[in-house]
Amino acid sequence: MSNPLKELHCYLRVSSEGQKTDGGSLNVQRNHGKKLSKKLGLKYVEVFEGSSSTMIRSEEDFYNSPRPQYRLLQDMIRDKRLINLWVWNKDRLHRDNLEEEFFNRFMIQEHKINFYYGEHGDLLRLDTPLDRMNNRFFSIISTYQKDNTSYLSRKGKQEKSRTEGSKGVFMGGTVNFGYTTKNKKFKKHPTESKYVKKMFEMYSRGESLKEIKTYFDTNGVKPRRSKLWSLGSLHKMLMNRVYIGEFIWVDRKSEEEFFITVPRIVTHSLFQKVQRKLTVNQKNKGSNSRKFDTLLDDFLVCYCGENITSHIKSTHGKIVKKYYYCHSKNNKWKGKKVDVCMNRRSMNMDETDKLVSETVREVVGDSNLLKERFKIDVLDKKSVDEDTIEIEKDKLQTSIDNINKELEVIIDSLSINEINHLTKKTETRVYKEVKKTLEEQRLVQEERKEQKVDEIEELDNQKDWVNWVTKYSDEINTSFSNITSDYLKGIVSNIEVSPKMGKNRDDEEKQVGHIMKINFKLPIVGDSIQYNDVKKKSKGYKLVNGKKSIKKEIGINVGGRKKK
């Protein structure tokens, strides 16, 4: 049985996950704790909090701190299982003056524990009013210095972002994998940037995060802070827009966003493709449907923004229940903040699959003539068209890069205008006029950029469409009797599901069904061909686009008896 009189509990905490991973700050604390334990002749007992943090605003907050190890310390002190406590710095244990005051009063003084702090293990004295006053005074000074340092750092980063953001200024910390710094500017790392591009290409081809991790680990590609790659780090990298040249940081106090232009590593086309795959893969995470083949798991989305996935219940190997349902309730139970969702009823899987299959078959069937002409005009020269699509995408990417350069000039001009105003080189009236004009230009360029990105996505859809028609060319003139998930991926973007409300048997407003909006990748709903001369069709024709979506409703079996 342990003897608290002969133990020194050393509380270790770091400020971020990065410090927790790289071990620098953590090892310093651990080593000093062990040295002090040996010096005092006590047994070293480590209490590691990790990177958790909280702000204390009341006595209730103090006793209900979300830091588990901090709460454990309090329990141990009250139970007389902890007599000696050490921290590297009181800031590691306390987040503000109020929290420190509560701890000193209700823990150290009330339970008479020995509280050591710092490199040399100074013992905190709170015996006299003077001791307590001195401690409060030094605590206030420490808080002021910390706040002042934070304020100056924030202002410095803001000013640097405004004046040098368009030049790829590096704001400090650990540079993103794939980049290095030169003269405090972002630069592409000659080796790492190639692996970043390789990572995006692998994932876009359907290779998993585990396969990417294995590839990196076995090829000597080292992450920034550890020996091996984690799946979480790779997932975050694939979502990071820094790799298309957009680095954004948000000031926590003012919530103002600052844009830093950095060298692009991957194209917008590749980045967009990866984001779509990430969305689909994240949607299926945690669903038991992965054990079974389902038709619509990759397509159904709820109007509330949450996923709709399948649930298949089997008993003794026999499937007894199959349905699709919105995950909002489950996510709320797990603690996620979700919007109120009225889509509370599940959807019978067989009936839903049948309705979607029949609708898609009908839309594609009505558009058979278009696809027949598409085969004749496109598939015979497929390789040429694919090359043409890639050339067009390259042109659009070049346009985006040029727009980014124009945005850099505008941001530079905004920065100069701000400096001239602060140094009183320009009048306030002129400053406001120049700022307004530049902001308008910036919005115009950003809209142009967004339009180019949309055009790239449309070209990708065209390429997918050509590949899809090639794969299913033998079925073009058939009734598509076998609608598969792979087949749907070629023509359907997603299926938005919203509740249909109405009166039930008891004349109460309830959900009575679902409204499904099937969104196609191309405008083939009601498309047609318009001949230049109906009497002489040899004179040619033009394709008339239809719509990209169609709505269908499916009811719910309300059942039961009417209330008496």
What does this structure look like?
The chain is α/β, with parallel strands linked by helices and 564 residues long. Among the domains are: 4-126, Resolvase, N-terminal catalytic domain (Rossmann fold); 288-366 and 491-564, no CATH class; 368-473. It is 47% helix and 18% strand. The chain contains 17 helices and 18 strands. It has helices at 17-22, 24-40, 59-63, 68-78, 90-93, 97-111, 129-164, 192-204, 209-218, 231-239, 268-283, 328-333, 349-366, 368-378, 382-422, 428-471, 485-489, and strands spanning 7-13, 43-50, 84-87, 114-117, 122-123, 179-182, 185-188, 246-250, 257-261, 300-302, 308-315, 318-326, 347-348, 492-503, 509-520, 528-531, 541-544, 549-555. Strands 2-1-3-4-5 form a five-stranded mixed sheet, sandwiched between helices. It has a four-stranded mixed sheet with strand order 10-14-15-18, covered by helices on one side. Strand 14 and strand 15 (509-520) form a beta hairpin. It is globular, with a radius of gyration of 31 Å.
| Major sheet details | 5 strands, mixed
Shape: globular
How many strands? Answer: 18
Q: Report the β-strand fraction as a percent range.
A: 15-25%
Mean pLDDT: 80
| Structural class category | alpha/beta
Q: What is the topology, as strand order, of the major beta sheet?
A: 2-1-3-4-5
Helical coverage, percent range: 40-55%
Q: What's the end-to-end separation, in Å?
A: 67 Å
Instruction: List segments where confidence is low: pLDDT < 50 over at least 5 consecutive residues.
Output: 18-24, 53-63
- How many helices? The count is 17
Rounded to the nearest angstrom, the radius of gyration is 31 Å
